[in-house]
Amino acid sequence: NAGVTQTPKFQVLKTGQSMTLQCAQDMNHEYMSWYRQDPGMGLRLIHYSVGAGITDQGEVPNGYNVSRSTTEDFPLRLLSAAPSQTSVYFCASSPRTRARGEQFFGPGTRLTVL
Amino acid sequence: AQKITQTQPGMFVQEKEAVTLDCTYDTSDQSYGLFWYKQPSSGEMIFLIYQGSYDEQNATEGRYSLNFQKARKSANLVISASQLGDSAMYFCAMREGPPRFYFGTGTSLTVIP
After folding, report:
1. How far apart are CA A66 and CA A63, in angstroms?
2. Angle at Cα B77 formed by Cα A57 and Cα B110, nearest 5°?
3. pLDDT tens for each residue of B71-111
4. Do A103 and B106 touch (CB under 8 A)?
5. Is B105 an 8 Å CB contact of chain A?
6. What is d(CA B111, CA B19) in angstroms, rounded to the nearest whole number?
7. How far is residue A93 from each of residues A16, A71, A87, A106, measured CA to CA in Å?
């Protein structure tokens, strides 16, 4: 199993450009989430999904869109990049369970917006 | 209000000593989960330990144990016999009403030889 994969690993954008961060998991997990990590602020939830076709906003959703057409994939779209979106982005997945159900994380995408 | 509070931005510990990383949480749910993750300088997020809100025993995983005090809403991570490889950021997280997870701001642990 590859677990959670993210592409690209690094990206530099100019202000106003758009792009899509890809995330895929092969563990058949129902739940998937996108976080951004900024120094001193921990991980903040951007959007999450409880299954194909169902998404919801997290703590910092502005400037980002998501969709989930399959169980495996959960792309994050930046509509018009801004310097404030410079961050490290993590995708995570977890199973539907009330037991342990920890999140499995991808390796992250380091995004710089100039 | 913050869902997860980690009040120690940085901690130092001597190799082979034990260290406690603090975490308090805020929830009105009866069913929730508490997690600790490690993030080394390479950047990946590594799951360490889990405690369910209904678990009566403190969780243990090798050198990691979770000191769960439900009434005080605290979930401190104890690392015994620290090793140089334990130097990393440590994040406390809570799962409330699946699947939302909330993370603290982290504690940077440095193990001194």
Report:
1. 11
2. 100
3. 999 999 999 999 999 999 999 999 987 678 999 999 999 99
4. no
5. yes
6. 10
7. 29, 10, 20, 9
